[in-house]
Structures are given as structure tokens and as C-alpha cells.
Design brief:
The protein is an all-alpha fold and 416 residues long. The chain has a single domain (12-60, 89-335), classed as Up-down Bundle (Amino acid/polyamine transporter I), CATH 1.20.1740. Helices cover 71% and strands 0% of the residues. The chain has 17 helices and no strands. The longest helix has 30 residues, at 268-297. The model is unreliable at 412-416 (pLDDT under 50). It is a multi-pass membrane protein. Keywords: Cell membrane, Membrane, Transmembrane, Transmembrane helix. One of its GO terms (cellular component) is plasma membrane. Its main location: membrane.
Length: 416
């Protein structure tokens, strides 16, 4: 097969991206934002969307003009050559040992909240989740898109149900006047909330699988981002109304707690299952994106099994490698009781650095308004790295090591 199957529609793309952005954050981040900024957090979400918008425009323009399964690595390679493309690709793949197992751990936590399962049972849930993701990955991107669109609808339905049962009306929303907003608390909230919009770089790997990538990929990216932002804002309103935040309260239990308060204890399992599915959707799109990146990088050696596609035009061999690695690290983390929270914080710096590399690339190879948006996005990414502080050194050290250790290649990978 010459390339990946082009079958994604605009609606499927919106479902994929919105669930990727909601992921593990939709149940926890609104409560964290409320704890940091109280009512000011209602302004933080539109401010965050405005800040992320130039970055999203940059990704949309890059995906429109240079669609490739290589995603961020392909964009950077177009601007700075094949070595930088490989460095960026491996930088993205370096998240696998921590990011995917951590998300699986959070997803399994919803089963513990609903049914009180032991750690051994939760490990089985994590491994079973990986097997389902592997099965979906062998069926083409369209299968994942249909399921994730359904998950996105379930999350939206849950928020609508909370607003309806909780009798939340627009006049009751405690939106403070702009002049009363505290800049310091707003910035503290933004530093946490940014992670809700980590996922744009993973979505870029699916650009080439749209039926009309030049038209539908940028539309799906922007619409999906706005849908996710609206859901996060709606969740924050509910958290503030029912005071489901504060010291000593688990942030991830905020929405399930509201559901129990409104619908009774028997409804807890409904909220937990939807929470699990949202996490599942995020892990799924990252797993499929990693597989496409491995396949794209393997094009340097076309005879490699990793460079081959199945009869369904999907990179099954690359998917097997990614899922196998994730399963291995999931088991290691379980046996060694590694501190996932600290490792994830360091991994977040890698995502920002990848965003920065893509925006700098966009500033170099794009033209017109897209070029200026990418330039603005690069400036914002520099600010985000500064917000991470000294912990961003982890990402910079990984980048420097990859730059020095990876062998040079003489040709740029052809677009896939």
C-alpha cells in the first residue's frame, strides 16, 4: 500500500480532537482551576483559548499545507532538515514510558471509585484497555473516530445533564467583572489549565487520513478546540456552583461528586464510566499517533517491517511496538511504584518544546497570516517554557542528547 487510508470526515475529526483535549483533564482540571482562582477561573478559559488560538492556527496551517503521518517531526523537517525531523520524532516518542502509563493509571482509577477494585484488578483494567486500543488501531482511524465521537457526545451530555438537574442558568453564573479579576490567580490557573490543550501535536499525525485534508483538517482542529473549551468552561461553572473544590478534596472526584449530589449514589457508576471513556479516548489517539510516527520514521528503511502497512492500510507493526512498549512500562511502573506525578511534570516540558519547534518551523515555511500566527505561537511557547521553570531542563536535556546521539541522515522523508 502506498499510504494511509483517507477516510476521516470533518465530524469524525472534531470527535477525535475534542476527546483528545478533554481526556483526563475534564474531570480534574476545572476543580484545580477553581481552587487556584475561584470565580476568576471563568475568565481563565476564554483567555487560555485566545492564547492557544495562534498555536492552533499554526498547527492547522502546517497540517493543511504539509499533511503527513509524521506530524510535528515532518513539519520541523520541512523547515530545518532531516536530522531535526528525527530529533523531534524521538522527542515525541520519549513520552511513551511515562505519559501513556500515567493516563492508563488515571483511567483505571475511575473503576476503583465506582467499584472499589484492588490494585491488581486495576492493573488488569490498564492492560485490557491497551488491548482494546490495539484492536481499534488495527481497524483504521475511522473506527477510532466513530467511537471517540460517541465519547465526546457522552461527555457533553453529562455536562448538559448537570446544568439541567442543577438548574444552572446564565444569570446565576458568578462571572466577575474584568476589573475585579486578580492577574496573579489568573496566571496560576492558566499554568495548570494549559495541559488541557496538550493534544494538538498528536492530532497532527492524523492529517493525511482525512478525505479532504486541506479543507477538513484545519476546520476539525479549530472546532474541536472550541468544543473542548466550552465543555471545560461548563464544568467549571458546575464546580463553582456546587463548591466541589477546595483543600483536602480530590480534584478528579469533583464531577462524580456533583453527579451523586444531583442524581443519587446509583448514578456514580455512570459518571465514572464516562470519565474512564474520556481517558480512554485520550490514550487511544496518542497511541495511534505514536504508531503513525514510528511508521513515518521507518520510511528511511522501506524494507523494515515497521515501514509496512496492513491490508487495511494501517501501520500494525508500528502499533504492535508502541502498545508493547506501553504495556512493558505499565508493568514496570506497577512493580516499582514509580512516582508518576513528578515524571509527568517533566514530560509536560517535552510537549511545550515540541509545540515551540513546530511554531518556529511554521514561522519559517508558512506565509501570510499563518506565518505571523506561528510566530506569535512561538513567543507564547517560550513563555510557557518559562512558566515550567527549571523543570523544563529535562526536556532541553533530552533534546540535546537526541541531537548529539542520533545519526545524521542525508534525505528528508517523503510526505506520507
Amino acid at each position: 500500500m502506498s499510504g494511509l487510508k483517507q477516510e476521516l470526515s470533518l465530524a469524525q475529526g472534531v470527535g477525535l480532537l475534542s476527546t483528545s483535549l478533554l481526556g483526563t483533564g475534564v474531570f480534574a482540571v476545572p476543580a484545580l482551576a477553581a481552587q487556584l482562582a475561584q470565580n476568576d477561573s471563568l475568565w481563565a478559559w476564554p483567555v487560555l483559548i485566545l492564547l492557544v488560538f495562534p498555536i492552533a492556527i499554526g498547527f492547522a496551517a502546517l497540517g493543511r499545507h504539509f499533511p503527513s503521518a509524521g506530524g510535528a517531526a515532518h513539519f520541523v523537517g520541512k523547515a530545518f532538515g532531516p536530522h531535526m525531523a528525527r530529533v523531534t520524532g524521538w522527542l515525541f516518542l520519549s513520552v511513551i514510558p511515562v505519559g501513556l502509563p500515567a493516563a492508563l493509571h488515571i483511567a483505571a482509577g475511575f473503576w476503583q471509585a465506582a467499584f472499589g477494585w484492588s490494585s491488581e484488578n486495576l492493573l488488569l483494567v490498564q492492560l485490557g484497555t491497551l488491548l482494546v486500543i490495539w484492536f481499534l488501531g488495527t481497524r483504521s482511524a475511522g473506527s477510532s473516530a466513530n467511537i471517540q465521537t460517541l465519547i465526546a457526545l457522552l461527555v457533553v451530555a453529562l455536562v448538559v445533564a448537570i446544568w439541567w438537574k442543577g438548574d444552572i442558568t446564565l444569570p446565576e453564573i458568578p462571572l466577575p467583572a474584568v476589573r475585579d479579576v486578580s492577574p496573579s490567580s489568573l496566571f496560576d490557573a492558566l499554568a495548570v489549565m494549559f495541559w488541557c490543550f496538550v493534544g494538538l501535536e498528536a492530532f497532527a499525525h492524523l492529517a493525511t487520513e482525512f478525505r479532504h485534508p486541506e479543507r477538513d483538517f484545519p476546520r476539525a482542529l479549530l472546532i474541536g478546540m472550541l468544543v473542548a473549551g466550552a465543555v471545560y468552561w461548563g464544568c467549571t461553572v458546575a464546580v463553582l456552583k456546587f463548591h466541589a473544590w477546595g483543600e483536602g478534596r480530590e480534584a478528579g472526584a469533583s464531577l462524580p461528586g456533583i453527579v451523586v449530589q444531583l442524581f443519587g449514589q446509583k448514578a456514580l457508576w455512570v459518571a465514572c464510566i464516562i470519565g474512564y471513556l474520556a481517558c480512554f479516548a485520550s490514550v487511544n489517539i496518542y497511541t495511534q499517533s505514536f504508531a503513525r510516527l514510528v511508521w513515518s520514521q521507518a520510511q528511511l528503511k522501506p524494507e523494515s517491517k515497521l515501514a509496512q502497512l496492513s491490508a487495511q492500510q494501517v501501520p500494525v507493526a508500528a502499533l504492535n511496538l508502541v502498545v508493547g512498549c506501553c504495556m512493558l512500562f505499565t508493568l514496570l511502573i506497577y512493580w516499582l511504584h514509580l512516582p508518576l506525578g513528578a515524571l509527568i511534570t517533566y514530560a509536560n516540558g517535552i510537549f511545550i518544546l515540541i509545540y515551540l519547534l513546530c511554531m518556529i518551523s511554521g514561522a519559517k515555511i508558512l506565509t501570510g497570516r499563518s506565518k505571523w500566527m506561528a510566530t506569535l505561537g512561538a513567543i507564547l511557547c517560550c513563555g510557557l517554557l518559562a512558566m515550567v521553570g527549571w523543570k523544563s531542563l529535562y526536556a532541553l536535556v533530552v533534546f540535546a542528547a537526541l541531537w548529539g546521539l542520533l545519526p545524521r541522515v542525508k534525505t528528508v522523508l517523503r510526505p506520507q
